[in-house]
Structure formats: structure tokens, C-alpha cells
Design goal:
The complex is a heterodimer of chains A (77) and B (903). Chain A is mostly helical. Chain A is built from 3 helices and 2 strands. In chain B, helix 15 (318-325) packs antiparallel against helix 16 (329-370), helix 16 (329-370) runs parallel beside helix 27 and helix 30 runs parallel beside helix 31. Classes of the chains: A mainly alpha (77), B mainly alpha (903).
């Protein structure tokens, strides 16, 4: 994919993540009901959190490496 | 059974273990550059220094008191790390290219290496972090007390020791440990690999401890998530977070997002200690994952504690007291070690980060300013000075933390104290973000913004934290200062009905950002500020330019080496100078300090003592007077050069335009002449051909004998003769002209009577005039006038002019007017006619060779050389022949010749 679009995608992803955990979107899931004995809102917040972690890990794979440095060690490793 | 003595002994042993880890970690990374200690995993784990004992103990307490609100402390940083590509990556890249040593250094460097801003930021950071350090002391104290109170006889040697004394002991121990740990040497890039290794180890310990307690409480004691929630609902605890998501949720998320960037210890770990920019790729998702694991069991532990522990138990200590009350001594010890790890890692990194800031930005500048000449200092140099000042700073910072702890008492829960610090350091956020993305953000804007934000924070949040211990503060809170209710700390400017945290965050950040923006718009940046702003904002856009903030002053390489040796140590300074000498290909002793080299040296120094101090130090040595002025002059000089260059370009292009126009004119003239010449050539050919044809045909007839009588023969021969004469005349004219032009003809000017020549010409033309029936009008005539020249040639010119007037005149009553005068030393003859005149387009060409008036009859004899020859002749006599507007409708030629004074 085009690198600029990918960067914009990362930005939108972070922005969406931020919007999902603050009002008013969070109100949608803030109902007094439970699934598997756990309140829905707790499940929702952790699910969003997990999604952000997995999404970031996936997106990062496509982002270019910093110039002049390898992925693991430092310099001449 | 677990006793206070045992946990204290364990703590000391654990600290010893950390020390050993740090020691070997340092040795390992020094010996082996690609050590696993420089891996992304260790980097990510070390970032989790964010999770302090506030997280370890306080999150459960917070969950027990306010439900899901504790999650905001993790969600804010999660968002920042998910978007690592934007803010964190830029910070890390800038940190590495500019050799940034702390958050104060970052802000000072961005805003023109201002020492004053660095001091301001350092002071705010120290004040802002003080409650946070107090929080750690409080957490450790509470946890030891919790163990001591857990059973009969557990108190042991702590009998009779109160919280204050215990906290003092802990603070002193921590200070000692941190000094031994973090200030063994002044490093090149202010990186502490050993410390980072120990912090990473502590991160594993605290995660393992919290997960162990969480699993034990949730599954062994509570019987799973569902059972715990059911029990909580049965006990009447609100689990659905009806009122959680309000302004406070938003503010706390914002604050924690700001904290992960602005907290000095986070900046130290994430930016300064970063060994490789690509480590962020892992940390971007792994750190949020770490946070997720840290908080999975927070809610169950809190709910189980609330339902099972006796009324009045401190929920902040549930993590420790639940295993204790279940009789799990081993697990309780692990939990204690986990909490202790969280606290120690925070104290170590925070006090190292703060001590670097204090020593680089407050102590060093004072020393630099007070000592007039660095060379006169003793041989110990700046390195020792730095170490000593850092050790003192660490002791000072922990003392402040202890004082805050003893002043505020132990009535507060852990979470609010941490939030005070978060809101304090969040005042850096607007200036950092503006510094990264807004080129126009200026020093004045940033300094006033941070200062005003800090004042509002101190008034609306820091001061109220003393409410319970100080009656004076309580009075201000209730009535306002001097009874002005308008200024009450938690109802500032009459804004009521907001949560105190939201209230404080709103006002402080609003004014902070407002002053930053207005200050930047209303003030102008210095040259150095502009350079630094570009270096920060465009850090990804261009290749790093060599920093050139100094022009070469009077300093020699020796002076510079002296400074470098004091700060960097002999070995590194030597290596730096030798490599520079190698690059330029001279001996190290002959090294000439170029601006590029000085820039590099400044960067190296900045890595040890901060950019502002390095700048001050070098400017002192370089003795270049006001550095910013010199920089300004350099910039002005460059601008001047550019302007001059563009002016030269403009001038050249104007010249080129002019030349081009001249060439164009010349070209047009040439073309016209060329076409005239073609026309003339065809004319000449025609005229040559006519006599030649008749000569040929007559000679052919003559060649045929017998048919002609003598009379006819005679006639033909005379015709041939006439035609030959005509041809000869034509050729003579051409030859004459070219000879005149080339100046080959012998020519001698001698005084002649011009008037006589004119008279002679008139009489020669008399016959021609009569033949055409032309009237001659005589104008004024001069008397005998002597000019330099040749009488015959002069007469030839007059004849030519008069005969032209006759030949081209087709008027019904042809008229020619001849006049001569003497005007200011010139003899002037004008010959005018009432003919058709000369068309405008031809006027220029009329004197050219081969030119003849277009209106001239085609059968005119003459090759159009007459005027050209005449002009040549007059020119040779130092006179002029021109076409002028005359008294008659036709053309008027004017001859001017200089009069010879009678001797």
C-alpha cells in the first residue's frame, strides 16, 4: 500500500481507538447487562483494548523501518 | 508467618540483587553491543516503569472506590503507543539527533537553547514529581505496616516506630541506593544500560506478582469472574459504572496520555535510554499489552476485597492483605516484593531523571557563570562536579518527597496523589506538541504558557492537597484568599459544579495553551530559535544538517580540547579530536576548529550536560561575544549574498535583453538591406543586360557583311559605343564608391570656395533643368566661403543632389530651391524640391549603397549609388549630408561643412 495512506491509516486507527473509549460512543455499551457473568461495559473496554493491541501489531509490520538501524540490535550486532 | 523484619530483610536482599543485576548489565552491554539487554523486549519492559505502586496497590483501591475509573490511567498511554508513529517516534528521533538528556533539555533545546526555560521546566518537574515520590514512600510504608499489623508478633523490631520514621528510613535507603546505582559515571548519551536492565527485571517481577495474586484471588478464593461479580451485585456494589463516563473520565484519559510523554522518568526511559528507534515498533503494541495484563485482575481483586474484608480495611492494600488473611505467606511476600519493585523502579528512574535535570540546568549553569575561566578550575574537572551535583540532587529530591509525605499525612488514598503529579507535568504537553509540529511556537509563548499553567495547577490542585493538614489552606479553600470567593482554588473565577480534578485540568491547560499560542503569535523568534524550530519540526523531512551554531572565534583546538576533556574525560575527548583530525587529514595538534567540528563538539557536550549548558560553555570558550548576534550576522551575510546574487542576475538579464533588442534591430536592418541589394542586383543585371543585348545584336548585324550601307553601319557602331560608355559609367560608379569607402583613393583636403562649387554645379545642371522645364528658386546665398575639401568632388555632390531633385520630380510645375548660409561656423547648403518626397520607411536607407527611391522611375539611369557616394565624399570633408524636413513638400537635403577661418 501507499506509504502515506498507511500512515494516515495508523492515525485514523489511533483516533478511532481514542473515540471508542470516551463518551459519547462508550455510552452505547454502557448498559446494565452482563455476558458470561461479567458486565458488558467491562468486556467492551477490554475488547477495544485488545483490538488496539492486535491492530497496532499488524499495522506496524507494514510501516517502514527507521533508516540506518536494524530491527533488533544496535548497530554492528 | 510473615513479619515486618522478614519483609525488610527481603527488601534489602532484593535491592542487593538489583544492584548486582545493574552492575552486570552494565558490563554486559559495554562488552557486547548487541546484548539482549538492548532488545526491544527489555525496552518495552523498562517503559513499564510507568506502573508504579500507585498502579500496583492504588489501582485496586481506586477500583474499589470509583469502579472502572482506574482504567483511564492505562487507556491514555495505550492510545499514545498505538499512535507511536506520530509523537513518540518523532520524540525519539529528535532525542537522538539533538542528544537530548531530559524533558527540560528537550524544551530548552527546541526553544533556542534557553537556559531560563530549562530552569523553569526543571523546577516545575521537581515540584510536580514530589507528590509522586511521596506516594511511593507512602505505599512502601503502608505495605510494611500492613504486614506488621497482620498478626501478633509480626511487628518485630518495628515496635514503637511510626510511619514517619519508617518512611524516612525508606527514603534514606532509596537515596543511597539510587546514588550508588545511577550516578556511578556520567555517560556519553546519558544512558544507563545497567539501570534499564534492573528496571526491566522489576517489571517482570511486578507483573508476575500481580498476576499471581490476581489468579489466586479470582479463581482460588473467589471462584471465578462470574462468582465474584454475582457476589458483588448481591452485596449491593455498583458494578455497571453508570456514572463513570463523564468529564472526569475524559480528563483522566487526557492526563494519563500526557503523563506517558511528559513524566520525566517516562521521557528518560522512552527517549533518552532508547538504543534503537525500531524498538518502538515492538513497544507500540507490547506496552499496551503489558498494561492490559496489569489491569485484568484489578476489578476482581477490588470486588472480592470489598465483599470479604472487614469494614474499614484499606482497599489500597487489598493486593497484600488478601493473601495475608488467607494465610498465604509466600504469595504475600511475592505481592510485597511486587509492590516494592514498582516503587523502587519509579524512585530510581525519576530521581535519576530529575537529578540530571537539576545538575545540568540549575547547578552547571551557576558554576559556568560564576567561574570566569574554566581553565583555572582544579584538575578534577566538570565530570566530578556533575556527579557530586547529581548525588546532592537525588538526596534533595527524596527529601522533598519525604517532606510532602509527612506534611500531607496518610489520610489520602494513593490515586489522588498520583493525579496531582500527572496534572503538574501535563503542563509541558502543549509546549512539547507545539514544539514538534508548530514552527512558529516561540520561547516567550512556551515559557509563559508553562509558567501560567503551573501557577494555576499549583493554586487549584497542589495547594488543596494540604487542606487536611493546614487550617490556613482550609480557610483559603472555603473563603478564598483575603476572603475573595472569586479566587477559591476549587471554584476559580466562579466556575462551580465541576469535579476538582476536571476544574484544575481545564483551567490550567486552557490558560497554558492560550498563553502559548498568544505569546508565540505576539513575539518573534531569535535566529537560534528559528534554526532549532526547523530542526525539530522537520526532523523527518531533511537529512540532518551539521549543526553550526557558532562561527569560528578566537578559540584554538587546544582551548576546545581543554573543555572537552573536563566534561567528557580524557579518553573520549581524545578520540573525538583524533577522529576529526583524521577526517581533515592533519595531525591532531594542528587541528583547526571548523564550525562543523564545533557543532559536533557541542552535541557531544550536550549529551552530558544538556544543550543549554553546552551552548553557554562553548560560547565562553569561543569568546565570540554574543553568539546569537554572530549567528545572526552569519545568517544576514548569507541573505545578503543571496540578494546580491539575484541583483547581479537581474542586471545581467537586463543587459542581455538590451543586446537582444539591438541584435534584432540590426537584423531587421540587414534583412532590409539584403532585400534592397537583391533588388538592386536584379536592377543592375537588367541595366547591364539591356546595353549588352543591343551591343550583341548590333555586333551580330555588323558581322554579317553586305546587307548594310555605310550610314547604317556608322549608326550601329555609334550605338554600340554609347552603350559601352553607359556600362563603363555604371561600373566606374561602383568602383568609385567602394574605393571611397575603403579609403584607397588619394585625397587631399585643401581650402576651396564652396560657393563657387555650388555655382558651377548649377550651371552644369542648367541644360537639364531647362529640358524639364524646371524653375529654380534661389534662396539666400552666402558669399565666398572657404571650406576644407576638393572642389571637383564637392561640385559632384551638388550636381548629384540637384539632378536627383530633377529626376524624381513629377510635379506639374516642378520646382527646386537652392539656398546656402553660414551658421555658427558651418557652411550649410539646402537643396529642396516639390516632388513626391521620400517615404518614411526609406529615409533610413536612402544613403545606403544600392539604394534608390522606390518611386523613382524604372527607366532612371544610375545605379542608386549617387547618394551613397555623396555622403562618403562629404564625410571625408568632415561634414554631414542629411535628409531634413524642408520648406517645400518634397525632399530636402542639407549639406554641412566646417568653414575655414581666414588666416
Amino acid at each position: 500500500m501507499d506509504r502515506r495512506k498507511l500512515e494516515n491509516g495508523v492515525f485514523v486507527f489511533a483516533l478511532c481507538g481514542a473515540m471508542l473509549i470516551v463518551p459519547p460512543l462508550v455510552y452505547i455499551f454502557n448498559q446494565p447487562i452482563s455476558h458470561f457473568g461479567i458486565p458488558q461495559i467491562v468486556l467492551y473496554l477490554f475488547a477495544v483494548w485488545l483490538l488496539l493491541i492486535v491492530g497496532t501489531a499488524l499495522l506496524t509490520r507494514y510501516l517502514p523501518l527507521a533508516p540506518g538501524e536494524d530491527e533488533q540490535g544496535d548497530g554492528d550486532g | 508467618m510473615l513479619s515486618a523484619d522478614l519483609v525488610i530483610a527481603t527488601s534489602v536482599a532484593y535491592v542487593g540483587l538489583l544492584f548486582v543485576l545493574a552492575y552486570f548489565g552494565d558490563r554486559h552491554t559495554r562488552a557486547n553491543r548487541s546484548s539482549f539487554l538492548r532488545s526491544p523486549a527489555v525496552y518495552t519492559l523498562s517503559i513499564s516503569v510507568y506502573c508504579t505502586s500507585w498502579t500496583f496497590y492504588g489501582a485496586v483501591g481506586n477500583a474499589a472506590r470509583s469502579g472502572l475509573e482506574f482504567l483511564t490511567i492505562y487507556l491514555g498511554p495505550t492510545i499514545v503507543f498505538v499512535g507511536w508513529w506520530f509523537v513518540l517516534r518523532k520524540l525519539v528521533r529528535i532525542g537522538r539527533t539533538q542528544a537530548i538528556t531530559s524533558i527540560a533539555d528537550l524544551l530548552s533545546s527546541r526553544y533556542g537553547k534557553s537556559s531560563r526555560l530549562a530552569v523553569l521546566v526543571t523546577l516545575i518537574a521537581v515540584i510536580g514529581i514530589t507528590p509522586y515520590i511521596a506516594l511511593q514512600l507512602k505505599a512502601i510504608t503502608s505495605s510494611i505496616q500492613a504486614v506488621a499489623a497482620s498478626s501478633e508478633g509480626a511487628r518485630g523490631s518495628l515496635t514503637g516506630v511510626d510511619d514517619g520514621a519508617l518512611a524516612f528510613g525508606i527514603a534514606a535507603g532509596m537515596a543511597l541506593f539510587t546514588i550508588l546505582f545511577g550516578t556511578r559515571n556520567v555517560d556519553a548519551k546519558e544512558q544507563h544500560h545497567g539501570v534499564v536492565a534492573a528496571i526491566a527485571f522489576e517489571a517482570v517481577v511486578k507483573l508476575a506478582a500481580l498476576l499471581a495474586v490476581g489468579i489466586f484471588v479470582t479463581f482460588t478464593l473467589g471462584g471465578g469472574f462470574e462468582a465474584i461479580y454475582d457476589r458483588a451485585i448481591a452485596a449491593g456494589i455498583e458494578v455497571y459504572a453508570e456514572d463513570t463516563f463523564g468529564a472526569r473520565w475524559l480528563s483522566m484519559t487526557l492526563l494519563s496520555a500526557a503523563a506517558i510523554i511528559c513524566l520525566p522518568r517516562q521521557f528518560q526511559i522512552t527517549v533518552v535510554e532508547n538504543a534503537n528507534e525500531n524498538h518502538l515498533r515492538t513497544a507500540g503494541w507490547a506496552f499496551p499489552a503489558y498494561l492490559l495484563l496489569m489491569s485484568v485482575f484489578t476489578m476482581p481483586i477490588a470486588l472480592y476485597g470489598l465483599t470479604s474484608m472487614p469494614e474499614g480495611a484499606n482497599p489500597d492494600m487489598f493486593v497484600l492483605t488478601l493473601p495475608l488473611s488467607a494465610g498465604q505467606s509466600g504469595l504475600a511476600l511475592l505481592a510485597f516484593i511486587g509492590g516494592f519493585s514498582s516503587a523502587t523502579s519509579m524512585i530510581i528512574v525519576a530521581s535519576i531523571a530529575l537529578s540530571i535535570m537539576v545538575s545540568n540546568h540549575i547547578i552547571m549553569p551557576i558554576i559556568l557563570r560564576s567561574s570566569s575561566n574554566l581553565g583555572q578550575r582544579d584538575g578534577q574537572g566538570v565530570t566530578n562536579l556533575l556527579l557530586v551535583s547529581r548525588r546532592i540532587s537525588i538526596a534533595l529530591i527524596l527529601t522533598l518527597g519525604f517532606l510532602y509525605f509527612s506534611l500531607t499525612g496518610d489520610s489520602d488514598a494513593l490515586a489522588p496523589i498520583g493525579l496531582i503529579s500527572f496534572a503538574g507535568v501535563a503542563q509541558f504537553l502543549p509546549s512539547i506538541l507545539a514544539g514538534l509540529y508548530w514552527r512558529e511556537a516561540s520561547l516567550r509563548g512556551a515559557a509563559t504558557g508553562i509558567f501560567v499553567g503551573f501557577l494555576l495547577w499549583a493554586w487549584t490542585m497542589f495547594l488543596p492537597s494540604f487542606e487536611t493538614v493546614s487550617p490556613a489552606v482550609a480557610k483559603i479553600m472555603a473563603e478564598g484568599p483575603w476572603g475573595i470567593g472569586f479566587l477559591r482554588p476549587e471554584n476559580l473565577f466562579g466556575l462551580n459544579g465541576l469535579d476538582p480534578l476536571v476544574h484544575s485540568v481545564f483551567w490550567s491547560l486552557l490558560f497554558n495553551t492560550g498563553f502559548l499560542v498568544m505569546g508565540s503569535l505576539l513575539s518573534s523568534q531569535s535566529a537560534l530559535e528559528r534554526i532549532q524550530a526547523a530542526a525539530f519540526v522537520d526532523v523527518f523531512r531533511r537529512r540532518p544538517l551539521p549543526q553550526r551554531n557558532f562561527v569560528r572565534g578566537s578559540a584554538t583546538a587546544n582551548d576546545l580540547f581543554f573543555v572537552a576533556e573536563r566534561v567528557l574525560g580524557e579518553k573520549r575527548a581524545g578520540a573525538l579530536f583524533e577522529s576529526a583530525a583524521r577526517e581533515t587529514g592533519v595531525d591532531a595538534s594542528m587541528l583547526e576548529p571548523t564550525p562543523e567540528f564545533i557543532g559536533r563538539l557541542e552535541r557531544e557536550l550536550a549529551g552530558s550536560i544538556g544543550s543549554a549548558s553546552a551552548h553557554v560553555m562553548l560560547s565562553k570558550v569561543l569568546a565570540g561575544g554574543d553568539v546569537s548576534l554572530e549567528e545572526m550576522m552569519q545568517m544576514a551575510d548569507e541573505t545578503q549574498q543571496v540578494i546580491e546574487y539575484s541583483q547581479q542576475l537581474e542586471k545581467t538579464s537586463a543587459e542581455l535583453r538590451l543586446t537582444a533588442r539591438k541584435l534584432e534591430d540590426a537584423n531587421t536592418q540587414l534583412r532590409e538591406l539584403d532585400s534592397q541589394k537583391d533588388e538592386f542586383l536584379s536592377q543592375v543585371s537588367h541595366e547591364v543586360r539591356t546595353p549588352m543585348t543591343s551591343i550583341r545584336s548590333f555586333s551580330e548585324i555588323l558581322l554579317d557583311p553586305g546587307k548594310l550601307d555605310e550610314t547604317q553601319r556608322q549608326r550601329f557602331v555609334s550605338t554600340i559605343h554609347q552603350e559601352s560608355l553607359r556600362l563603363t559609367k555604371l561600373l566606374d560608379e561602383i568602383l568609385d564608391l567602394s574605393a571611397l569607402e575603403r579609403g584607397e583613393r588619394n585625397w587631399e583636403n585643401r581650402p576651396v570656395d564652396a560657393e563657387a562649387a555650388l555655382e558651377r554645379a548649377l550651371s552644369v545642371c542648367d541644360a537639364l533643368l531647362r529640358q524639364r522645364g524646371m524653375r529654380v528658386e534661389h534662396g539666400d546665398r552666402a558669399h565666398v566661403t572657404m571650406v576644407e575639401g576638393d572642389a571637383d568632388r564637392l561640385c559632384q555632390v551638388f550636381i548629384n543632389l540637384i539632378s536627383n531633385a530633377v529626376k524624381y520630380n513629377d510635379a506639374a510645375e516642378p520646382l527646386v530651391r537652392v539656398s546656402s548660409t553660414i551658421r555658427s561656423g558651418w557652411y550649410v547648403v539646402e537643396i529642396a524640391d516639390n516632388g513626391p518626397g521620400i517615404a518614411k520607411g526609406e529615409r533610413k536607407l536612402i544613403f545606403e549603397k544600392f539604394s534608390r527611391g522606390k518611386r523613382g522611375a524604372v527607366d532612371q539611369e544610375g545605379a542608386g549609388l549617387g547618394l551613397a557616394i555623396s555622403r562618403q565624399i562629404i564625410t571625408r570633408m568632415n561634414g554631414t549630408l542629411e535628409l531634413v524636413p524642408g520648406p517645400l513638400p518634397g525632399a530636402c537635403f542639407r549639406v554641412r561643412l566646417p568653414v575655414v577661418r581666414n588666416p
